[in-house]
Prior knowledge:
This protein has helices at about 10-25, 45-50, 115-135, 170-180, 185-190, 220-225; strands at about 1-5, 30-35, 55, 65-70, 75-80, 90-95, 100-105, 140-145, 185, 200, 210-215, 215-220, 230-235, 250-255. The protein is of the alpha+beta class. It is built from six helices and 14 strands. Helix 1 (about 10-25) links the parallel strand 1 (about 1-5) and strand 2 (about 30-35). The strands form three sheets. It has a six-stranded mixed β-sheet with strand order 3-4-2-1-14-13.
Amino acid sequence: MRIATWNVNGLRARLDYVRIWLEARQPDIVGLQELKVSEEEFPASAFDDLGFEVVVYGQKAWNGVAVLTRHRAEPILRGLPGQEDFGARLVGARIAGLTFATAYCPNGKDLAHQDFARKLAWYDDLARFWPSRVAEEEPAVLCGDFNVVPSPIDSWRGADGDGSIFHTREERTRFGALLDLGLRDLYREKHADRQAYSWWDYRAGAFPRGRGLRIDFLLGTSTVVDRVTAVEIDRDFRKKKEGLTASDHAPVYADLDWEVS
């Protein structure tokens, strides 16, 4: 079974591109972030003909998350309690014996902005909420755009980035709190020392210059980790395809030795 996460940076602008990727990579379950579309306007029919059921928590013009699945989904999560003012940022379902949730974590803007403190509070609430809904021993994945660089190897700036937005001790501590719940970074489980990125700014030629950050993650419980056979950042899908512009994020996918009943 192939699972994936992808911040599409506007689904309506990227719909044809997303369909190209779905047909090329044939994932079973995908968490999408930054839809920028309401639930009423979500283009579900565009995924029907590719065999996907959708679970959506949308928001007009901003935020928004969705799960695409080739298997029957039982929705179980919709929003982070107490953080409704920060928008549509968390949705999840039980699919093929797996709890699968996707999150679009707040950006924080900069260290002096009020949204930075709100970002930390959002993470604190997520760390409190997750174990109330998902047991540590159950097979589960929390994926998404976390807007945190866990360590210097995950940034083109290396240790020079320490202390700047996405690279602060406060943000890294909050990300670490999720790992303390029993979640593990699937990419690092397979590529402990590989320097690779999942996001590149559109400006200043960041992508061809290799100036990226790894901020998109598939986090899984030990039951999932034990069944991972491969994890990749799909860098090729940060490039234009058939004249279509990519998101500034690349998809990240993992293959699991997972029997679907």
